[in-house]
Structure formats: C-alpha cells, structure tokens
Design brief:
The chain is mainly beta. It contains one helix and 60 strands. A hairpin with an 8-residue loop joins strand 26 and strand 27. 40% of the residues are buried.
C-alpha cells in the first residue's frame, strides 16, 4: 500500500454538446417583502404540568416582570408563575378553585390601571370576580349564577360612575347581559333575550365618551351595533352582514387614529373594519391567512410604532404574525412556529421585553420575545423547520446572516442581522420543490444568489436577490444527473460560472453553467465511471478528490475545477474489494497546503485513515478513532476554521454520544486526536462560524425545538 505514481488508467473526458436548457420551470423578476422583525424572534420553552389549556398574563406582585396564570377548566386547577429577569419563572404554585374557569379578563379603571379580574365559568354558568395575592394565590371574591352558559366578558364603565360593568355573551348564552357590582354583589340586567351572540365587545363607536357594544349574532350572521344612551341603556342602531360565523371579535385602534376599529377573525382570514368620525365602518380590509386564526392578539411586537396582529391556529398549533405597515397595510404573514397541542396565547410585557406566550396541553410553555442583547447561547424561532441551515453575508460587513429552507412552508427563509448582531430583517421566498441544501454566492453590491438543491436529486432552484432594490430573480431547472455539490466563480466582469458535481450510479460528471440572460448555457463533462466517493473543498478551493474502484483496487484521484476535471492525477491506491465505507473531507488543515485531504476507509477487512498533504501521505490505523468517526454520518461533518488563525478543523456530530467533537491532525496527520467540543443532542444541520468578532459559535437547527440554536464555543 503506497502512493501511486504509475501512469493513469484510461480516464475518458466526454464533452457533451453545448445546449440551452429547455426544462426551465419558473422565471420571475418581482418585488418581495423585507419584513422588519427587529429582534422579535427569541425563543424559549419551559416545562409545565400537562393538562393546562388556558393562559393569562398579569402582574400580581407589582414588580417589573410579567407573571402568568395557567388554568385547567376541567379540573379546577390553577398554577401561578412569578416572572423574573431574563424571561425566567419561578416554580409553579398550585391551587384549587371552586369553579371551572373558562376565561379571565382585566378590570381596568379610568387611569388605565388594573384593579381586579373577572372570570366566567361556562360549565357552572357562573361569572365572578377573582383576585391574586402577591404570592399568586387566587381568591374568588364574588360570583353570580346565570341561567345559561357564559363564555365571553368585556369590561368597561358604561355610565360614568367609575364602577366597572361586565358585558356577557357566548355561543350558548341567552342574548346579552350586563352585570353590575352593587354592594359587593353582582346583579344581571338583560339587554336582549332569545338570541345568541357568540362574541361581544364594549367599544366607543359614536365617540360620545360612553362605551357602546359590537356583538356578533350567530343566527343572522350579523355584527350588531348598539349605542349607549349615556345611562347604561343600549339600543341596536345598525347591523353589518357577514357570510359565515367568526372565530373572534376585538375592538382596538389599529391605525392609531384615535378611533376604535373592529377586528374579526374567520376561517383563513382576518377582517378589519376601520372606524371613522361618522362610525360608518365602510373601509374594510380583508387579510387572507395561511392558517385558521382561531385566537388573535394585538400589540407592537417588533417595536416599530405600528400595531401587529398575531394569531394561533389550535388545530395545527401554528403561531403566525402580521406586522403592521403604514397606510393600514400589513406585511405578508410570518410563520413563527408550530407546536403540538397549543390551545391559547397571550401578549406579555416585562422590563425592556415584550413577547407572546403560548401554552400546550402537553406540558409546555413557549415564549417568543425580542432580543435586547445577544447572550452566549440563544434560540431563534422563525418558520416550522430549518433545513439546509447555512450562512451568508449580504453586504460583506463581516456580520453573518442566516439562510435555511422551511420544507413545511416550502420557502427559502433569510434572516439579516444588524450591526448589533441581532436579527432585524426577515425574507421568505416560495420554492417549488423540497430541497435540503443551500449554496450561497455573493454577487457584489448587496446581491446574493442562493442555489437550493438536494444531494442525489436533479432539481435546482436559483434565487438571486438584490437587497438594495428588493428585487428577486427565480429560476427552476433540472440537470441530467444526481447532484453531489455546487460551486460558483466570477470573472472580472462578474459573470457567473456555476459548477455542478454529479454522481449517478458510479458515473462522475461535471456540468458547467454560464449565465446568459434568462437561460443557462450548459456544458457537461463525463469524468469517470465506477466512482464510489467524492469530496471537494470550501468556497475558495479549486480541487476535487474522488475514489474509483478498478478491478481489485481503490484509486484516489485529484482533479481541478480549473480545467473541468480533465486529466485527474492519481494520488494513492490500495488493494480492496467494493465492500467499503468511505468518508472523505477536504480542507486547509496544514499551513503549507490549502488542499489537504482526509479520508477513512472502513470495512470488515480494512480500517485505515489517510491524510494527504501535497504529495505527502500519512496512514493511521487506530481502530478506536476510526471506529467512532466511521459510524458517524458524512452529513454530520463540517470543515471550518475554529479560531481566527485561519486553519481548518474537522468537526463532527458523534454517532455514539451525539456531541460535537473536533478532530485535530497533528504532525501532518501522523497523529489524530478527537476531543469533545460541546453538547448537541438534538442538532440537525449545523455550521461553526464566528457570529461576532470575539468568538466562534455552533449554529444548528434544533430538531427537538424546531428552532435555530446558537452556542458560543469555549
């Protein structure tokens, strides 16, 4: 077993005729949205007891942090969690209460201060008042038994006496009722009988200073408006027809013009009835949604001074946000996450932090919040999953941005980080296929090309983005053979040449694509048959290595992209049969050579590590090292610099203990040391990069949480 220097076998280069690809499926040049998330994507999860389905945010201990109340209507259980700094919570305190609470609402005085809380119990047909001690202990202080099933509560002072009244409605409740608190006893007054209003809301419709009522009639499918005469009596003055039942009804000044608007969610849409000085509500905006907005909340989540709408689809557990723009417009919705068993969401506000809390009946509490700084370890949640996770630098400012493929939503997602290294802008581009890898290519002047593909498949989706004028060019096409990898180079005129390495049933080929207007001009070179393994280096490497099985030998070749792999050079050969597992990596492992090569040949009869640096070959046959590396998936290896000195290291996610480990090649590969780097039990696709100017980080798609995790390396 020695390096080969004999003449090369008959490797034939066949150049196919140059042709224009006709399988062009999609081309578009279109504007796309730059969505200002402004750091609103920080993700945390907390374990809670299972079975809790409802969530309420409050501040019962009057500190600077939001507290949470979890309740389980079926079992009359309540748990309270004290909020602390850094979005942490104390261990829950558990309590039993006398009623199966369905809903809790704030009681707010004229100074916008929370003075108490009202609740409804559908099962017991009760409405009551509840308070919370500074340690979170609940106390039911007053309640009234009704003759039907209350669900929804709206609270306001309807007659100017500084005392709150409660508007009651529900899908199985008789009409509309007003509850007043007289001498510490709740008293019911019926506004309407013999009708059903699924939702009702106090709001100032005619701007006379007294709250009116908007209520949705289930039978007529009308939104009925009731005016307050100033004495707490209501008359129906108008009905707005709808074609179907609704999920929710809210009153909120969305466009900040001092008029309360009506926000209604329906199956796969949100309708906004904008108010005006004459209360006509004739300006209606309909927003189609990807999922069913069963529950909605409103707030300025990205802190840009505009109101946003977040919704939860409980069937899929999907959280989606519509960020507000100017002129009563909204950006395309952003899918933030999908979590099984999610049943409720609330906005919450703590010191310097605002966010959204989600509760799952399976025992999880999820928080999405804004970044105020970048900690040593954190999670980012944007999208349902994050495949092909990679980095790019859209304007060459030294701050790495993130790209990945959401194969549930079929989109290429991009996260741009600002100079504070906080995610600030989000882009999402529809894809046709279900690719798993991304190759990015900087084209200059804030232009980047993204090539989405899957190893072993033939489909490529090219997405070229101009981040300055927010335009996008998309092409989708097929190639002749299964793709192994992609590289790109530019000439002085910045014309792109795209190299596609392909391997199909042992046939190694190279396709070279020249960008010409809207088409790609393609030349395909057949390099070798009986190829069993291929490896090439990172962006700046021009070298490819491949193993070819020939009779009873494995032969290692070195080829160059510069001449389209013509006349590959034999570097090594070994006697072996075809029953081998070969793992190979290329990188700048040594100071004197940028095209070093590391390979492991593993089989029942042969266990060998080969390190090639220039013409120097080192052989290592340590079974314990070979064994751990060989059982790890080649897709779990990553070659990169791990410090600012520039030399590459080999990292891999161990198939034995799932930790990220580092392979050091000492003495030109004659000695190999494997050392642990960090825990990564649920790591999917990953890379290692200096995500700031101080440290290197492990960045990976977290398969347990379906988020992106970034950890500073020691």
């Amino acid at each position: 077993m020695k390096p080969c220097c004999e003449e090369k076998p008959g490797l034939i280069i066949e150049i196919s005729s140059i042709k224009i690809l006709t399988a062009l499926l999609l081309f578009s040049l279109e504007a796309f949205s730059q969505i200002p998330i402004n750091g609103f994507c920080k993700y945390n999860r907390f374990d809670i007891d299972s079975g809790f389905t409802n969530l309420f945010a409050l501040n019962y201990n009057d500190d600077s942090y939001t507290d949470l109340v979890l309740y389980n209507p079926a079992k009359r259980d309540i748990e309270t969690l004290d909020g602390n700094q850094s979005l942490s919570f104390t261990s829950p305190r558990k309590y039993k209460i006398p009623s199966e609470i369905s809903l809790i609402r704030n009681i707010i005085d004229k100074n916008n201060k929370v003075t108490g809380y009202a609740y409804s119990s559908r099962k017991r047909m009760n409405v009551g008042l509840i308070s919370f001690a500074k340690n979170g202990k609940p106390l039911v202080t007053n309640e009234i038994k009704l003759n039907s099933y209350p669900e929804n509560i709206s609270v306001s002072d309807i007659n100017g006496d500084s005392e709150p009244e409660f508007l009651i409605s529900g899908k199985s409740f008789d009409g509309l009722s007003i509850l007043t608190n007289e001498k510490r006893k709740l008293k019911e007054t019926k506004i309407l009988r013999n009708s059903v209003y699924s939702f009702s809301q106090f709001m100032n419709i005619n701007r006379d200073g007294f709250p009116d009522i908007a209520a949705f009639n289930v039978a007529s499918l009308n939104l009925d408006l009731f005016y307050n005469n100033g004495n707490g009596q209501f008359d129906k003055v108008r009905s707005i027809p709808f074609s179907e039942n609704i999920n929710s009804l809210r009153a909120f000044d969305l466009d900040l013009d001092s008029f309360e608007d009506i926000i209604i969610s329906k199956q796969n849409s949100i309708e906004i009835l904008y108010a005006s000085f004459n209360s006509s509500f004739d300006v209606i905006k309909i927003i189609k949604t990807k999922y069913n907005p069963e529950k909605i909340i409103i707030g300025d989540f990205n802190k840009d001074g505009k109101m946003d709408i977040a919704y939860l689809d409980t069937k899929t557990g999907t959280l989606s946000i519509l960020f507000g723009k100017d002129n009563r417009d909204f950006y395309p919705e952003v899918i933030y996450c999908r979590k099984d068993g999610c049943t409720d969401l609330v906005p919450y506000y703590s010191k310097f932090i605002n966010g959204i809390a989600l509760i799952s009946k399976y025992g999880s509490l999820y928080l999405i919040s804004n970044f105020t700084s970048v900690p040593e370890e954190f999670n980012i949640s944007l999208g349902v999953n994050q495949q092909g996770l990679n980095y790019f630098d859209h304007n060459h400012d030294g701050i790495s941005d993130l790209c990945y493929i959401d194969n549930v939503e079929h989109k290429l997602d991009l996260i741009i980080r600002n100079t504070s290294e906080i995610p600030s802008l989000f882009y999402s581009i529809p894809l046709v296929g279900e690719e798993t890898k991304i190759y990015s290519d900087y084209l200059g002047k804030n232009k980047v090309a993204f090539y989405c593909y899957s190893e072993g498949k033939k489909l490529i989706e090219s997405v070229k983005i101009d981040f300055t004028n927010l335009s996008i060019e998309k092409k989708t096409f097929y190639v002749q053979n299964n793709i192994v990898g992609i590289k790109a180079e530019h000439n002085d005129a910045n014309e792109v040449k795209l190299f596609l390495v392909q391997l199909n049933n042992g046939k190694l080929s190279l396709s070279v694509f020249h960008s010409i207007d809207v088409n790609y001009l393609n030349s395909t070179y057949t390099v070798a048959d009986n190829v069993v393994n291929v490896s090439y280096g990172k962006e700046n490497s021009r070298i490819l290595f491949f193993w070819q099985y020939n009779s009873d030998s494995l032969i290692l070749y070195r080829a160059s992209f510069d001449n389209n792999f013509e006349n590959p050079e034999i570097k090594y050969s070994i006697k072996s049969n075809k029953d081998n597992s070969i793992l190979s990596l290329t990188g700048n492992f040594f100071t004197n050579n940028k095209d070093s090569y590391f390979t492991i040949i593993h089989s029942p009869e042969l266990n060998q590590t080969l390190i090639l640096s220039g013409n120097t070959v080192s052989i290592v046959e340590r079974k314990e090292i070979i064994g751990e590396i060989a059982v790890s998936d080649i897709n779990r290896f990553y070659v990169t610099a791990s410090n600012f000195k520039g030399l590459d290291k080999i990292f891999f996610c161990s198939g034995i203990d799932k930790n990220i480990k580092k392979v050091d090649l000492l003495n030109k590969g004659k000695n190999i040391i494997i050392s642990p780097v960090t825990d990564a039990q649920y790591a999917g696709d990953y890379f290692i990069k200096n995500m700031d100017m101080r440290s290197f980080h492990l960045v990976y798609s977290n398969n347990k949480e379906n988020c992106i995790t970034i950890k500073q390396l020691p």
